[in-house]
Amino acid sequence: MNAIEVSGLNTFYGKSHILHDVALAAKEGSVTTLLGRNGAGKTTTMRSIMGLTLPRSGSIKVFGVEVIRQPPHRVARQRVGYVPEGRRVFPNLTVEDNLKVPQGSSEGPFDIPRIYQLFPRLEERRMNRGRQLSGGEQEMLSIARALLLNPKVLILDEPSQGLAPLIVKDVFRIVTTMKQEGMTVLLVEQNVRMALEVADTAYVLDHGVVVHEGPAAALAGDEALIQSLAGASAEEWDLDKA
Question: Which residues span the domain enclosing 60?
Answer without folding.
Answer: 1-79+185-242
